[in-house]
Amino acid sequence: MPSESEPGSQHWIEISVAVDGEAAEAVSALFGQYGEGGAVIEEVPLAPSVAEQGALRPVQGEGVGVRRVAKTFLPAAETSRLEALQQALWHLGRLYPLAAPEVRELGPADWAEAWKSGYQVLRIGERIRIVPSWIPYTPAEGEIVVTLDPGMAFGTGLHPTTQLCLKAMEELVRPGMRILDVGTGSGILAIAAARLGAQVLAVDIEAVAVRTARENVALNGVSDQVQVLQGSVDDAYRGSFDGILANILAEIIARLSPDLARHMAPGGWLVASGIIESRLQAVERALGVAGVEPVRHWREGDWVALEARHRRKERG
After folding, report:
1. Per the domain annotation, does 122 fall within a domain?
2. Are 150 and 119 a contacting pair, CB within 8 Å?
3. Gap between the terminal Cα atoms of the chain
4. Which residues of the chain have pLDDT under 70?
5. Spatial CB neighbours of 90, under 8 Å, sequence gap ≥ 6
6. Residue 189 placed within a domain
7. In angstroms, what CA-CA distances link 315 with 64, 134, 170, 265, 295?
8. Residues 161 and 304 grouped into a single domain
9. Does residue 277 sit within a domain?
10. Are residues 159 and 305 in the same domain?
11. Are 154 and 118 spatial neighbours (Cβ–Cβ below 8 Å)?
12. Do 17 and 89 contact (CB within 8 A), yes or no?
């Protein structure tokens, strides 16, 4: 969202990068660090001639003419900030196949609408609806509405990893459950869990995410159900949880596997997302060493979310 110090006559720079697979999350993290509006990920139709060139692989399951584009915004006057972001993208391009970023200047009126243009009401699963705070929406009977002001934190509902988690949650979260949300970002999963009737502890190592999540929790009126703290699952949080949500990078899920297992209650479950298909086996191996066994998967394109159960605790 625009910063509170933003002058009305300020000009802005829009930076957009076409992203593929795991690069989407890495670019989103950079945009969250440098951009004023966090990261917006849009699905953009490709002309047939572009799709055939194969420079960017189309999103699986979305048709051959669709790719994802990540966008963020910077004040035009902050040239050093733009240069730092461009340099960070260059280094990221050594790890992932990234197209060159596109940069364009926006006037104040253009900015006011452009940063919101990638957001819309999202219908996820049977009942969950993600509604940007500036869009009026009247829910149908039985719908679960999460009102979101994305700020600068990851987790707007636009990314497949978030949507996979929400679909899994719709099946798994029950009223009265105690849920741990690791890497809460914007707070979207924690709020959805609260809307489904759970009590939630949401944690994130980033101060900006904690602040944004707390604002969104208050915006949704679920402060009595959701506690947001700065930290991670390997910090000294006592007790166990009926369900754990981890929409974070695959390597972090693998590293935190022993701590995630330790916090699972008997009969409890873990939903882990943020996993690219090529990293799935490594994550499952790490979970297996911790005594946690995957029992179900949800997929969208190259992305996977898994449900896992603790073998020892299941046997009781």
Report:
1. no
2. yes
3. 48
4. 1-9, 21, 37-38, 43-67, 108-118, 150-158, 235-238, 312-316
5. none
6. yes
7. 46, 48, 25, 12, 15
8. yes
9. yes
10. yes
11. no
12. yes
Of 101, 99, 135, 104, the residue nearest 117 (C-alpha): 135
The vertex-273 CA angle with 98 and 101, nearest 5°, equals: 15
Structural domain tally of the chain?
Answer: 2
pLDDT at 107: 75
Q: What is the pLDDT of residue 116?
A: 67
Output the pLDDT for position 114. 63
For 116-120, the CB contacts below 8 A with 24+ separation are 117/40, 118/40, 118/41, 118/42, 118/71, 118/158, 119/40, 119/150, 119/156, 119/158
**What's the whole-model pTM score?**
0.72
- Same-domain status, 193 and 308: yes
**Residue (of 67, 59, 79, 82) closest to 17 by Cα position:** 67
Same domain, 44 and 163: no
Same domain, 78 and 201: no
What is the reported pLDDT for 57?
40
Residue 56 phi/psi, 5-degree rounding, is: -130, 130
Q: Which two tokens stand for residue 114?
A: 């452009």
Report yes or no: 8 and 108 within 8 Å, Cβ to Cβ. yes
Please give the residue range of the domain that contains residue 186. 154-315
Query: How far apart (Å, rounded) are the C-alpha atoms in residues 198 and 194?
Result: 5
| Amino acid, res. 21 | G
Return the pLDDT at 108.
67
One domain, residues 87 and 166: no
Phi, psi of 97 (to 5 degrees): -75, 100
Residues 176, 53 share a domain: no
Query: Does any domain span residue 169?
Result: yes
Q: Give the separation between CA 21 and CA 160, rounded to whole angstroms.
A: 10
CA distance 157 to 178: 22
Pair 146, 131: CB distance under 8 Å: yes
